[in-house]
Amino acid sequence: MRILVVGGGGREHALVWALKHDLPEATLFTAPGNPGTAQLGTNLDIPATAVEHLVDAVRAQRIDVTIIGPEAPLSLGLADRLRAGGRHVFGPNQAAAQIESSKAFAKDVMAKAGVPTAKSRTFRSLTDARDYIDRHPEPLVVKASGLAAGKGVVICATRAEAQRAAQTMLEELAFGDAGREIVVEDYLEGEELSVLALTDGERMVILPPAQDHKRLLDHDTGPNTGGMGAYCPVSLSTPRLLERVRREVFEPTLRELASRGMPYQGVLYAGLMLGAGGAINVLEFNCRFGDPETQAVLPVLPAGSLAHLPAIAGGNWRPGRTVLPAVGSAVCTVLVARGYPDTPETGAAITIPQDPGGGDDVLIFHAGTCADRDGTIRVAGGRVLGVTGLARSVPAAAKKSVAAAERIAFAGKAYRRDIGWREIARAGAA
User: Fold this and answer.
1) Which spans in 114-205 are helix H?
2) DSSP labels for 31-96?
């Protein structure tokens, strides 16, 4: 089997790593890939958003299955173009990908499907948004409706902050076209949970849930980012909870999309808020594997789990089970560049020790890196590396992750040292 993974970040490196383990006979390609994926297969120098060039490459390389990692090529219709040519693809079509590319669309789907989510209003007019915010209780949340690389959500303690956020998006276009439409919604209290389901549009298999850490600094302080780390599994995600998520979130959403002529195939990511009294609310949907959740979830999946992806793409999927258990625990700590998330500095040389410690229990996933002609690895993006520690428990995995992160060097390196802190606190209280 010849498999192409589209994308060049930490999520794609983790996907290629997992495919190499689960499908060792497969020939792997990544476009554009990174220095990490180059060690596992062949990188194609094609941007993830260059739809026509990717279609040509699939034909030229005789690709059997294309797995689309990021949201941008999905929102541009890459899956549609490949399927129109008779190719097998893992990932939703352009219409269904609106579940992520338009928060306004996702809110409408949830309203029609009866999926629990925060009360909200959608605006294109700054005047109308300001009038609504003036009457809204504090705190509140302002979101860019379009794709903003995970950074288009502003949690506002006051109406004044929300007014500023709305102006920044609608008038100053801080997020470009992604912020020409905004969603203003109620602030929800609780604990977040990321639940991913593999689906062919009818059947589904739920992966072991993870918890992301969006804030830049320890103790969940600082600005929102694309994600500073994640851990898996999460003890809050009991079988009973996952069954509720299936019935109350995934199934009605898939039915509603199908009723609109948008059957969903691929991985559907539900970002949830677990509130008091057992409340479950959807904060967001993503139309792809999460990043950095993927770097914590894939390493703890049962052996052979990635075979689900080409089976779904080929239309011959027989899942057998409804939930995949976690085998052990994983904690991923993300190393970021100086100035991240606003103005990350690139170009610094990266030193990764031959043995960062932990042996096979430490995995290093490249995200924002590139290689010079002489082989020097350099910083090429805001989120640079994901360092995943593996162990029997989350506290032990966290220690391995942080210890390895400390041994990697580049100018301006920053990272959180408390990834998994809620789970570690629960383990200590048990």
Assistant:
1) 126-134, 159-170
2) EE--TTGGGTSEE----TT-HHHHHHHHHHTT-SEEEE-SHHHHHTTHHHHHHHTT-EEES--TTT
> DSSP letters along 320-381, please?
--SBPPP-SEEEEEEEE-TTTTTS-----B-B--S--SSGGGEEEEESSEEE-TT--EEE-S
What does the pLDDT read at residue 281?
A: 97
- Is residue 430 predicted with pLDDT exceeding 70? no
Please, where are the H alpha helices in 114-248? 126-134, 159-170, 239-245
Domain 191-429, CATH homologous superfamily name and number? ATP-grasp fold, B domain (3.30.470.20)
Q: Which residues face 274 on adjacent strands?
A: 191, 280
Mean pLDDT of the chain, nearest integer = 96
Task: Tell me where in the chain the CATH 3.30.470.20 domain(s) lie.
Answer: 191-429
Q: Work out whether strand 215-217 and strand 221-224 pair parallel, antiparallel, or are unpaired.
A: antiparallel
Query: Prior bond to 341 cis, omega within 30?
Result: yes
Given a cut of 90, is residue 356 above it in pLDDT? no
Indicate the SS3 state at residue 169: helix
- Evaluate whether 278 touches 371 at the Cβ level (below 8 Å): no
CATH 3.40.50.20 domain residues, the chain: 2-93
Instruction: Give domain 119-186's CATH superfamily.
Output: ATP-grasp fold, A domain (3.30.1490.20)
pLDDT tens column, 283-328:
999 999 999 999 999 999 999 999 999 999 999 999 988 999 999 9
Report whether 98 contacts 127 (CB < 8 A): no
Reference 237, options 326, 163, 309, 159; nearest CA is: 326
End-to-end CA distance of the chain: 46
